[in-house]
Design brief:
2 strands, binds protoporphyrin IX containing FE, 176 residues, Fumarate Reductase Cytochrome B subunit, elongated, 2% strand
Length: 176
């Protein structure tokens, strides 16, 4: 078992970060779509706090990727598919940054930052500001929809590799 990625497989740190981010992002999108229907102040608060966890995990993932090599693709995967796969992955990481940043910004601008008891975690340099609320809410909703599309493409591709093409693309994100 290797901590670092190798030419053929993802290391245990990348795999752990990947599945942690996947569960967090898919969970947050699901809860986010239901937030207004649930209407519970506790769930809103948990959504904001978990958003800060997503932001942290996304930043760690990006830094970790920069310190690692990336396993190559088997020759059976055409070049254009490799480019699309990598672009989708980069865009998903970007989405995992923009979602919490936009949410944190508009929640702070609206005077409702994430909080644990009396400890409030307001975004630095943001005060009450209707323009930030407007653009934060717009970006948060727009990027959520884009992210749902990207995750659908990414998941479908991963499952096709495993169940139809039967290569090692999915397996190497599970074990090495
Ligand atoms: C059940 C859902 C998911 C499955 C089955 C899945 C599967 C995979 C697989 C098999 C790879 C390796 C692909 C390759 O070698 O090109 C991969 C890589 C990647 N996936 Fe996912 N994934 C899922 C959800 C997500 C989500 C929700 C995100 C982010 C929001 C994400 C972000 C990434 C990224 C950034 C990579 C590149 C490696 C890394 O930096 O971790 N995935 N995924």
């Amino acid at each position: 078992m290797s901590l670092m990625n190798t030419q053929d497989s993802f290391g245990s740190v990348t795999r752990t970060l990947h599945w942690l981010l996947a569960v967090l992002v898919i969970g947050m999108l699901t809860i986010g779509l239901l937030l207004d229907d649930i209407g519970s102040p506790l769930v809103y608060q948990l959504h904001k706090l978990t958003g800060l966890v997503v932001l942290t995990v996304a930043i760690i993932s990006i830094i970790w990727n920069m310190c690692n090599i990336r396993p190559g693709y088997p020759a059976s995967v055409p070049r254009w598919q490799q480019i699309i796969a990598k672009s989708v992955q980069h865009l998903m990481l970007l989405g995992a940054l923009i979602m919490p940043l936009s949410g944190w910004a508009f929640a702070t601008a609206a005077g409702k930052p994430p909080a644990i008891g009396s400890l409030t975690l307001a975004m630095p340099f943001i005060g009450p500001n209707p323009t930030i609320i407007h653009w934060g809410v717009t970006i948060h909703g727009f990027v959520a929809n884009i992210l749902i599309g990207l995750i659908a493409i990414h998941t479908l591709a991963a499952l096709t590799h495993h169940f139809v093409l039967k290569d090692n693309i999915f397996k190497r994100m599970v074990k090495n």
